[in-house]
Amino acid sequence: MTTATATTSDDSSTGGLSWTPRLWGTLIVLCTAMFLDALDTSMVGVALPSIGSELHLSTSTLQWVVSGYVLGYGGLLLLGGRAADLLGRRRVFLVALGVFAGASLLGGLVDDGGLLIAARFLKGVSAAFTAPAGLSIITTTFAEGPARNRALSIYTTCGASGFSLGLVLSGLLTSVGWRWTFLMPVPVALVALLFAVRLLPRPTEERARGGYDVLGAITGTAAVLLLVFTVTEAQGAGWLSVRTLGSLAVVAVLATAFLVVETRTAHPLVRLGIFRNGSVARANLIAFTIFGSYAGFQFIVTLYLQQLLGWSALEMALGLLPAGALVALSATRMGAIVDRFGTGKLLPIGVLALVLGYTVFLRLDEHSSYPALVLPSMILLGIGFALAFPSVNIAATAGVADEEQGLASGLVNTAFQVGSAVVLAVATAAITAGSGGGESPAAQLDGYRPALALVTAVALLGFAVAAAGAVLDRRRKRATPATVPDYDYPSVDLADRQDGMLTKS
């Protein structure tokens, strides 16, 4: 990949950096792919009742329309991140984006529930390769510091916007027909693919050296896939059933085998030493909690608003718009905010806003009004994601060598998706247990409240990790006088970098 340079500028609106049109175009292409990945994660939610009605799918089968995507996405992210490092980030990104477009088209045309789930799984697999490849292209192109902060803030905020606006777009499209929620990404992905071919730097970058950790890939991928599958199916099979406990035991065996392989192989799929970087380790834990809690919350809110309060898909879309709008509007400013305050300060504040947003929603009843319940919750969630999502991605890749950026990107995206699958499955089980299978408003509320309490507790755990990280950062700063600008990065050496200089990918 050729070296790109960002020149200094006095324009404060650009954070002191002026980028070439080609560099902006590259970032926009990568942001579009990230937006589509996140959009697809959330957009199907509002369409589920319509899909179930037309294709005659049971509630448990409908869950797999969501979980199939998460299974492919979360299960193969580690492999996708390492493939980007070894095979070339540009090549992996282009191929996976093409597969994503094809799978989207298939999902919009099928008339069978099994084929729809298969298409969703295929889309998840493709996203498992585009997400770490795209993120690692950015982190190896933009120098650690203001340039990378700005790029990552725009990129990750686009992802958060896609996730938030997915509900809105789904409501609008479902009012026309649920198939449009699958077909809409097709032309966008194809256009992004055409521009990616022209704009993404040619494969002259140095790739990670070493062989392929085949045994590690098999055991690690199998462990994640089986974990996601087990927790998703546990509601139907029973959490204490022989099937569920047996599957979890196999997961433990596979995970142990994976760790043994990674400590003994010369070229591991996951170099376990990466977790000695405290920023990376904490960021992955926080990613698990914030994405997991929101996935559970989204599922609860969809059921509550449409089934109990009787909202239409369009009404729900417009009601949830403030959260997505706040995230989208913050995209261009988050880089400067991170530069000024650091991820160590922003992460606890952002996760706390999420906790408060879920707490507000615990007041739900049979006649809750939009201004009193939904609107304040959406505002808090919008603020929370605007602050936490870019910060956690920056923290998860800070201080990581270029040849392992694909790995770091795969790890944090795996944390997002596994958290989503696990918390969603447990929240669904809480709804079923609390309601006792009843369909009356009182029974439904008895299911929603414990599930919301669970979601809030998961987010609170993320806040505790983020707050502990902030305390550790302050202690480290007191013990070690700062010699470079503070971006909350561990041991960042900027001495050999010019202002705004971009590194080779």
UniProtKB/TrEMBL annotation:
Gene3D superfamilies per UniProt: MFS general substrate transporter like domains, Multidrug resistance protein D
Keyword Transmembrane: yes
Keyword terms, alphabetized: Antibiotic resistance, Cell membrane, Membrane, Transmembrane, Transmembrane helix, Transport
Transmembrane parts of this sequence: 27-49, 61-80, 92-109, 121-142, 154-174, 180-200, 212-231, 237-261, 282-305, 311-334, 346-364, 370-389, 410-431, 451-472
Record-linked SUPFAM superfamilies: MFS general substrate transporter (SSF103473)
InterPro entries: MFS, MFS_dom, MFS_trans_sf, Sugar_transporter_CS
Main location: membrane
Keyword RNA-binding part of the UniProt annotation: no
Compartments it resides in: Cell membrane
Residues of the Major facilitator superfamily (MFS) profile domain: 26-476
Record's bilayer topology term: Multi-pass membrane protein
Protein name (Swiss-Prot/TrEMBL): MFS transporter
Protein's organism: Kitasatospora aburaviensis
Lineage: Bacteria, Bacillati, Actinomycetota, Actinomycetes, Kitasatosporales
